[in-house]
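Q: Given only this backbone (417 positions), what sequence would you predict?
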């Protein structure tokens, strides 16, 4: 398996361009199942998770191709309603085909995604909402089997804010008969991006980006050309890396409004952040102050930035508390950071971090994407070399991560297996 080696101690300097958002592209690609004809999506990041999705859509009968960050999907040949275990286990977000398949084919058989490294991650709220839309749901042999004569609009309240749950049900409801109201819906920018694409396909969705989304069902949708929004977690990761290394970095092609909470918290640590015309300029040269953080659904501080922010706090002046309220097991990186010399105590869903003078390089690994990214960040400031194993997690969600860091002056390289 490939490894990434990072030689710590370089200040990051220069500019970096942000790729399209993985978590916006995944539901939008699934939405292409909702109509016949060729959809064209640009600015699609070149990632393992995108390849897995295209493999799944092809398996379902869609024609897919990807070239230079442009993906074309034509679901005219959609003829298979089963997402098998082998494809779903590679990527939990495969569950996003459930809503479109039921809406389009009136039935779906999708392998249940299991728990993953960061938590149990049930899909009970997706299933309950789909049942309220009129689908019959059965669980058997590790699969969800859903069928219906015709989906009908319903008034749905989500007990917990769920991102892919909101997306799945939005995609099912656009072809349902009548009006659907989603209450306590997720407000993430990826929800708005999906609603925008669906509306351009001919759907009628109001309120996406707020907790109440109203969807008037339509009979059919048509294909579109759409651009994937920039990745706010990649943006935040480079912002944190710039602040951490005392760097001077311009982040290009981002949407600063999507990273408000991260900008706010980084400013409190002492970083200077200027935002102008989609460029975020991060400068830091005066040490790092400790700041408490609590992860929350958008517009709160994203759980997908918790691990990266924690690295910053490991070398900050003073102590702070980081609380993780979204996933029950998202401190996987803590043990590895401790091996690098960090002083972190975890109690329940909170981590107490006492800043230390330095981290020291070590062989490390993580079992989730953002935890792996945090270890790269730790490597950037650690003494000597940090060896990050299980790089495939990074390849699932960060495009050209090493070369982007190299451009900024980091000493980082991949060692092929
Ligand atoms: N939940 C339930 N029941 C459900 C659905 C969710 O109890 O039916 C709970 C989850 O267990 C969790 C909370 O609700 O405690 C929030 O989970 P959510 O459903 O919002 O997460 P997700 O949709 O599975 C997406 C992102 C994650 C990101 C979370 C939270 C995609 C493909 N994935 O996951 O991204 O962490 O929202 O913002 O959009 C990543 O990119 O590394 C990643 C993990």
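A: Predicted residues:
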């Amino acid at each position: 398996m490939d490894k990434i080696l990072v030689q710590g101690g370089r200040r990051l300097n220069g500019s970096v361009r942000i790729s399209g958002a993985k978590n916006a592209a995944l539901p939008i690609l699934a939405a292409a199942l909702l109509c016949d004809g060729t959809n064209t999506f640009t600015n699609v990041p070149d990632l393992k998770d995108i390849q897995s999705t295209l493999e799944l859509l092809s398996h379902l009968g869609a024609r897919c191709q990807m070239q230079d960050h442009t993906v074309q999907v034509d679901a005219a040949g959609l003829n298979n309603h089963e997402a098998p275990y082998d494809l779903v286990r590679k990527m939990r977000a495969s569950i996003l085909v459930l809503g479109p398949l039921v809406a389009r084919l009136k039935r779906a058989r999708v392998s249940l995604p299991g728990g993953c490294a960061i938590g149990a991650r049930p899909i009970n709220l997706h299933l309950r909402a789909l049942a309220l839309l009129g689908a019959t749901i059965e669980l058997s042999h590790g699969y969800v089997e859903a069928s219906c004569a015709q989906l009908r609009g319903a008034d749905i309240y989500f007990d917990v804010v769920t991102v892919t749950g909101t997306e799945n049900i939005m995609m099912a409801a656009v072809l349902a008969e009548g009006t659907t109201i989603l209450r306590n819906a997720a407000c993430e920018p990826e929800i708005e991006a999906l609603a925008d694409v669906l509306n351009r396909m001919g759907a009628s969705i109001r309120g996406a980006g707020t907790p109440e989304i109203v969807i008037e069902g339509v009979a059919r949708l048509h294909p579109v050309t759409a651009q994937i929004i920039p990745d706010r977690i990649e943006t935040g990761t480079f912002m944190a890396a710039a602040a951490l290394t005392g760097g001077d970095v311009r982040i290009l092609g981002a949407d600063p409004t999507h990273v408000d909470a991260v900008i706010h918290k980084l400013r409190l640590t002492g970083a200077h952040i200027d935002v102008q015309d989609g460029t975020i300029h991060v400068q830091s040269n005066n040490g790092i102050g400790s700041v408490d953080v609590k992860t929350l659904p958008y517009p709160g501080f994203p759980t997908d930035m918790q691990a990266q922010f924690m690295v910053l706090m490991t070398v900050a002046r003073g102590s702070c508390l980081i609380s993780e309220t979204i996933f029950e097991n998202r401190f996987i990186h803590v043990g590895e950071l401790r091996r690098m010399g960090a002083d972190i105590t975890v109690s329940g869903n909170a981590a107490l971090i006492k800043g230390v003078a330095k981290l020291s390089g070590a062989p490390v690994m993580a079992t989730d994407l953002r935890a792996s990214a945090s270890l790269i960040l730790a490597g950037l400031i650690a003494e000597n070399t940090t060896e990050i194993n299980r790089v495939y997690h990074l390849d699932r969600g960060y495009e050209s991560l090493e070369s982007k860091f190299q451009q900024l002056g980091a000493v980082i390289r991949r060692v092929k297996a």
